[in-house]
Design brief:
binds magnesium ion, ATP binding, two-stranded antiparallel ribbon, 8% strand, elongated, alpha+beta, binds adenosine-5'-diphosphate, 7 strands, ANK repeat, nucleotide-binding, single chain
């Protein structure tokens, strides 16, 4: 046996390092299969070894005697982190095997996360195999179709032609946007971090001398991902409403562009120094204070007005919670953090597992918890109900249940209507308010009111007293 092959079998990274530094060929092909060591390391899912080989010059665009590339091996073993890793080191995303199939053909109906990764690295969805089929022609199962639907709300009836239109639509918007809303990074200055996250930071800064918030996305956007990003930013910028935070513009990180290269992809927002509703509630609780009745009603109206507007714009927020609501200097509320959730690393809305992986379990509507993909804007009404509850009780909804019972039990309880939040027998808020709040988190989405109705009821309540 070839010594590197043997060391891979033995999972002996040290031995491999020794062999390579003593001059063994990292790209030595097996006579029989035409495969180099990286193939075996991928087949055996030895991630450390794969990393070492790649970083030390393993050829990623080699083709074995069966027409397979290392990327195809990683795709076949459904190892999404290896797929992403190989792509980030320049593996050809559109390589074809002897049947004319690309990786996308193979995986589109099997693994939506990998499909998404391939598309985001620019995979061409219009390459045909030797049967003259597009990857999307193999999309038959519900999950795949729902994955495709995520590209747009109106994308209900799947067909390759429609998909094609979409991609083009993204491209047009992207080009239009490029000139219009791109900010000049030279005029952008950071002042201090607001939130330093592991994945992307939010900074207080200035743009053109005005105070702004800068929300950074560390990931490089490419291919379809980039076009979706453009599209979402276009939507954010179009959303102008007193209860929605204003998006001023955005900047795009480009590897090829050495001058602008310095600054990561980010969006620039109007800045509010008071912080979020969540922080406000936490502080009140510490001092054992409550939000005044009038404040709760006025806040409730602000959020409902903002959400009514978003729904009219065709946007489902999907992550409405007190941490995603800011307080202005005039004590009004503005909704933030919608539209771009798919670009948070580790968070994509493609499959249920993934949207369930987001840290906002508590506010998630039962139908999302159950993993349904055909949910409606009423999921936001549910989350809204929980925000109202939090303003009244000053507690994070379902905090204890999640803490003591864990996610699985939470999911099986809330997701199947076996539990819901407690409703106070006596409250300092009017009964109409409490009833409205409970209607919002009704288990059945059809029983939840629309935001337009919520606004009307709340205004009546406000005027009554
Ligand atoms: N425009 C802004 N002005 C002031 N603070 C902000 C602004 N945008 C976000 N923040 C702060 O950063 C936090 C996270 O922002 P968000 O957009 O929700 O990011 P994430 O995607 O990490 O959840 C908010 O809860 C708020 O405290
Ligand atoms: Mg947020």
């Amino acid at each position: 046996m070839d010594p590197i092959t043997e060391a891979i079998w033995n999972d002996d990274l040290k031995e491999i390092q020794k062999l390579i530094s003593s001059g063994e060929d990292i790209n030595k092909r097996s006579e029989f299969s035409g495969q180099t060591p990286i193939y075996l390391a991928l087949q055996k899912n030895k991630k450390e070894i794969v990393r070492y080989l790649v970083e030390n010059g393993a050829n990623l665009n080699i083709i074995d005697n069966n027409g397979l590339t290392p990327l195809m091996i990683a795709v076949d073993s459904e190892s999404h982190d290896m797929v992403e890793f190989l792509l980030s080191y320049g593996a050809n995303v559109d390589a074809v095997n002897e049947y004319g199939e690309t990786c996308l053909h193979k995986v589109i109906d099997q693994n939506s996360k990998i499909s998404y990764i391939l598309l985001s690295y620019g995979a061409n969805p219009f390459l045909k195999d030797i049967d003259n089929k597009l990857p999307l022609d193999y999309a038959t199962n519900g999950r795949t179709v729902s994955f495709l639907e995520r590209y747009s709300n109106k994308f209900r009836d799947y067909s390759p032609a429609l998909f094609f239109d979409f991609v083009n639509e993204y491209k047009n918007i992207a080009m239009e946007l490029g000139n219009k809303f791109m900010i000049d990074v030279n005029k952008l200055k950071e002042i201090s971090p607001i939130i330093k996250g592991a994945f992307g930071d939010i900074w207080k800064g200035t743009y053109n001398g005005n105070v702004v918030a800068i929300k950074k996305f560390l990931k490089e956007m490419r291919g379809l991902n980039l076009e979706i990003f453009y599209r979402e930013v276009a939507l954010l910028i179009k959303c102008k409403h007193p209860n929605i935070v204003e998006t001023i513009g955005f900047h795009l990180f480009k590897k090829e562009d050495p001058i602008k290269n310095i600054y990561p992809t980010c969006i620039v927002l109007e800045y509010f120094k008071t912080g979020s509703l969540s922080e406000r509630i936490k502080k009140l609780l510490k001092k054992n204070l409550r939000l005044k009745k009038e404040t709760i009603i006025s806040y409730a109206i602000d959020i409902a007005e903002g959400m009514k507007y978003l729904h009219n714009m065709g946007v489902i927020h999907r992550d409405l919670k007190s941490g995603n609501i800011l307080i202005t200097n005039e004590n009004h509320l503005k909704i933030i953090d919608f539209g771009l959730s798919r670009f948070k690393p580790g968070v994509t809305n493609i499959t249920t597992e993934m949207s369930i992986g987001v840290g906002t379990f508590n506010w998630m509507a039962p139908e999302i918890l159950r993993g349904e993909s055909d949910y409606t804007p009423k999921v936001d009404v549910y989350s809204y109900g929980l925000v109202l509850w939090q303003m009244v009780f000053r507690e994070i909804p379902y905090k204890k249940l999640l803490l003591h019972k864990g996610r699985e039990e939470f999911r099986s309880k809330v997701g199947f209507g076996k539990t819901s939040l407690r409703i106070p027998k006596r409250s300092y808020l009017p009964d109409e308010f409490i009833n409205l709040m409970a209607r919002c988190w009704d288990y059945n989405p059809n029983n939840r009111p629309e935001f337009s109705e919520i606004c009307e009821i709340l205004k009546e309540i406000k005027n009554k007293k």
